[in-house]
UniProtKB/TrEMBL annotation:
One of its GO terms (biological process) is cell adhesion involved in single-species biofilm formation. This is diguanylate cyclase. It comes from Vibrio thalassae. Its EC number is 2.7.7.65. GO terms for molecular function: diguanylate cyclase activity. It is an enzyme of class 2 (transferase). The gene is yeaP_1. PROSITE patterns: GGDEF. One of its GO terms (cellular component) is plasma membrane. SMART domains: GGDEF.
């Protein structure tokens, strides 16, 4: 097997299937392949050779500048750590969002280090992965988040609310499971109307729901719960047997502990109703 000639190596670089760029030890571009050149010319006429990504980012459109800066930061991280970790970089054009898988490696030539950056358009794969991730984290009936999602997130502030639909079994038994599904769908809509997009709404079990709020003050929490009560009373007029029990807790040391405390508060509320004690949220 013979060594590559200069011409062969140049052709190999030119026909590389993705974007390819090479920077010297000063982070200046010394080579970009044709595919990357053609893509760049959609956004700028500036020749990047001899420039750093940071310098180039100052004179190109904002969307391109953001991508170049991310790639530059990834190069610095790679130089400092020595670890070659693939990175997904987002690029927003006027018409669509694209994602590129960026990989870096170092080559030492005649005592000088060069950083090679390769990137491939993985937009379709990224969209498919997001689709299946969203499907795995979504309750198929209500389209709320599910228990799997709740177990995967980090949450460390605000209030955790546990809500249980009282007498829901009666609806399933007396009106049928199809009617029960409609009740769950309608209650999911009530929750969406009562809480903000920043809050996480989860179908925790059959007729049990969890809301993780961002509220820092309890007064804001009570406003949301009052709104939920109003929406509930309006939407479920034809279900006189149906009501709900609520318990909540402010964030403790972990989501698991906070959820347990809110769950106990909800069951206490349910117990108080059965024993005809004054109704309380806690």
């Amino acid at each position: 097997m013979t060594d590559l000639t200069y011409h062969q190596a140049n052709e190999l670089f030119r026909h590389f299937p993705g974007f390819l760029s090479i920077r010297n030890s000063s982070q200046e571009y010394v080579y970009i392949n044709d595919k990357f050149t053609v893509w760049l010319r959609q956004f700028t006429d500036v020749n990047p050779i001899g420039m750093t990504a940071s310098a180039l980012a100052k004179i190109v459109p904002k969307n391109l500048a953001s991508m170049l800066q991310e790639c530059h930061d990834a190069s610095i991280d790679y130089i400092e750590s020595g670890q070659c970790v693939p990175k997904i970089v987002k690029f927003q054009s006027l018409h669509e969002t694209s994602y590129y898988n960026v990989l870096k490696f170092k080559v030492d030539i005649e005592g000088e280090s060069f950083i090679y950056t390769t990137s491939f358009d993985v937009s379709e794969l990224h969209q498919e992965a997001k689709f299946f991730e969203n499907k795995a984290y979504t309750d198929p009936l209500t389209k709320l988040r599910n228990l799997t999602y709740l177990s995967s997130i980090r949450w460390n502030k605000g209030f955790c609310i546990v809500i249980d639909l009282d007498n829901f079994k009666q609806i399933n038994d007396n009106r049928g499971h199809s009617e029960g599904d409609l009740v769950l769908l309608r209650f999911a809509r009530c929750l969406r109307h009562s809480f903000s997009e920043q809050d996480v709404i989860v179908r925790y079990g059959g007729d049990e729901f969890v809301v993780l709020t961002h509220y820092e003050e309890e007064a804001m929490l009570h406003q949301a719960l009052e709104k939920l009560q109003q929406v509930f009373m309006e939407d479920f007029k034809s279900y006189p047997e149906l009501c709900h029990s609520i318990g909540y807790a402010s964030f403790q040391s972990s989501l698991r502990i906070t959820l347990k405390k809110a769950d106990l508060a909800m069951y206490q509320s349910k117990h108080d109703k059965r024993t005809k004690k004054p109704k309380a949220l806690l």
